[in-house]
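Hey L., structure's done. Input below.
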Amino acid sequence: MEYAHPESAALAPCSVQTVASAQRASRRLRGPRIQGKSADFARMRTSRAIACLCGLAGLLAVTAAKAQDKWDDPGPYYYKGYDYGSQALEGPLWVFMNRGFDVLQDQTGLRGRDIFAQDYSVDAKNVGKNLLNPFPAIKARGWGRFLREEIFPLSWTPSTARWVPNYGLHLVGGGTTYVALTEWFRANDVAAPEVFSAGTLLASAFLNETLENKGVVGYNTDAIADFFFFDIGGILLFSMDWPKKLFSRFLIVSDWSMQPGFTYPDFELHNQGNYFAVKFPIPYLEQVRLFAHIGLGTLAGLSYKVDRQYSISAGVGNMATRLVPTSTTNADNDVIFAKAAGIFVDRNESLLASLRVVDVQDYTVNFNLYPNALGAPNLGLWSVVDRNGHFIVGASFTHTMGLGLGIGSLH
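Output:
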């Protein structure tokens, strides 16, 4: 090998060794420096996470401290005996009509809202068969799919997230209804109030599952999950004190169901539906709370406390307007949603008035004025208007436990 300069030849081996040593030293230097930066970044992220957790803990501590007095309140949790608003209608018939016929709001099928034209014999028999022996239905669907879609929040598509209404309506809603009815029976000196409350709740649940079956002769895993895991589960859960306190003293859940009534001339059941209001306190904002209105759909927004008794709440969201059967061998339904908005006025969590607008053909505008909201003794009023201007007006009565009458038609 030739070199251009003799001194270069002499220095070449030393230069190669020097470069190699320098590269190794550089790698050694760079390694710790990069690791140090990574460690610093990790420590910075950890510090931020701890700071966020501390801040959240502080907010919760402030909220919890303010709610401590209410938490220790030994009074009734849900039924306070108010003679105004939705609570003036509280009772087993009101719960049974709203909860039992809740699914008829979707207007699916030829029988519509005529409760006397439903095929109870086929549907009740099929639901009863599945409840008496649930294992063949679960096995046919697959335990993994059953648990993923019906029990745990692990599926999120419109056709598989069947667990969504189970937690809000069946577990928490059913549990709070069980407690409210127990308190109602106790206030009316009925023996064994827990038994009558559970019986009313489960009877209405069975009726709603029957109507939701929609002529299917086969498996119905939806009814199995609803009835055993969430309806009965809600009763068992709310037999303990802490869920009652949590969902009445801190996260406030109230039954804001409708004022059902039979209409002339079609003798259909209208203005029924099982709905709940949920209010979540916001730290440092005593007059403003997060708000949700849940039932056959969900509206989300804010609630503003006007004074110590009255609140105005508003929300937007979607309402389930149709259940479309997707199988003839299993009671599976796809849910069709429509945009909706609502405004509500309550007094001490007892609903006084509501106005709801939904982007559908039939129940486009729905207004409810509950008993004694404006001084009318023991009388509530309601109305519904469709897109074509057809309307129904009706009234509810406290002496009939909420079951009322209406006149008009949407046909």
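DSSP finds nine helices and 13 strands in the chain. The longest strand covers residues 310-325.

-- N.
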